[in-house]
Each structure stands twice: as C-alpha cells, then as structure tokens.
Amino acid sequence: MKVTRFVALLSMLGLLASCAPMSHHEAISSPALRKAVQSARTRSDHTALWKHFEKLALEMRVKAEEQRQLLEHYQEKSYLYGRQAQDRQSHTWALLNRYELAVEQSLAKADAHRQKAANLAREDQGVFVRQTADTPAIVKYKLRSNDITGSN
User: Fold this and answer.
1) Is 130 helix (H, G, I), strand (E, B) or coil?
2) How far apart are CA 10 and CA 31, in angstroms?
3) For residues 86 and 82, what is the distance between their CA atoms, to the nearest angstrom?
4) I need a surface site. Which of 13, 51, 102, 123 has the fewest CB within 10 A?
5) Which has the closest alpha carbon to 52: 98, 2, 6?
6) pTM of the shown model
7) Contact 85, 78 (CB under 8 A)
8) CA–CA separation, 90 vs 71, rounded Å?
C-alpha cells in the first residue's frame, strides 16, 4: 500500500516537472506542487517531497553559482559590453538573488517535510497491522510499554 502511494507520488511529481513550462524557481510555488504537498499524508509522501525540494535546492544553488561567476565577469570586463554593462550586471545580480532565495525556500520546505516524515516514522514505531479474511478494513494495534512487560 505504501509502495503504491510512493510510486504514485513520484510519478505525479515527475509529471509536474516534465509538463511545467516554467523555471525551477516558479515551480516551488506552482499550484500543482502545492496540491501535492497538501495531499501528502504518509511518511513516504513526505520523504518524496523532502527529496524533491532538496534536489530543487541543489539545482538552484548551481544556477546561483553560475550567475555569481557571470556577475564577476561582467564586473571585471565591463569595458567589453559598453553601454549594456550595467544592465547586464543588474540583471545578473537580480537573477542571483532570485536563485539564492529559491535555495532558501526549497531548503526550508525540505526541512519541514523531513521533520514531518520523521514524526510519522516515530508514530509508526510499535504499530502492528492485522488484516483478516473476515474484516476488509485494516486494524492497527499500538504497542504500549506496559503491554511488553505484561503488567496493566
């Protein structure tokens, strides 16, 4: 059951990533991804979102570094670009700031989903699932510390 949800979430995120004609920065707050975040209930859902946001942060960090190097180039060799030098510098600086902000947002979201997944993992410890032929529903039993020792 968890595996199918995990696969469904991964395929949904893959579909979102492939069909979205927007930059990675805009993909952080896209309506489809927001819906996937809101529908995440299980530990595997939050783990997939956590990894997705970490990957997105890494991509944004690489793009920010590219913009930083480009900005240094424009500042050192501004004489090559004439009247457009300041325009290129300001545009590159703005992109650098957008990418750095996207990195911070992605890491914050990844951290939130990592914590949610850890909390759900902690809650799942000691839970046993039993399903019989008589009952179509899954019944969960939580193991308590006094159940282990046999005392009430």
Assistant:
1) strand
2) 17
3) 9
4) 123
5) 6
6) 0.62
7) yes
8) 9
Give 21's DSSP letter: -
For CA atoms 61, 67, 70, 74, the dihedral sign is negative
Burial class of residue 99, CB neighbours in 10 A (0-12, 13-18, 19+): buried
Task: Assess whether pLDDT exceeds 90 at residue 100.
Answer: yes
Residue 140, strand partner residues: 129
What separation in angstroms does the CA of 17 have from each of 44, 45, 101, 116, 126? 19, 16, 20, 23, 36
* Per-residue model confidence as pLDDT tens digits over 118-138: 888 887 765 555 555 665 555
Distance CA 107, CA 111 (A): 6
DSSP H stretches of helix in 20-84: 24-27, 31-38, 43-76
CA distance 32 to 138: 31
Q: What is the mean pLDDT of the chain?
A: 75
Residue burial 117-140, b: 16+ Cβ < 10 Å; e: rest: beebeeeeeeeeeeeeeeeeeeee
Q: Is the pLDDT of residue 68 over 70?
A: yes
* pLDDT score recorded for residue 19: 41
- What residue type is 136 in one-letter code? P
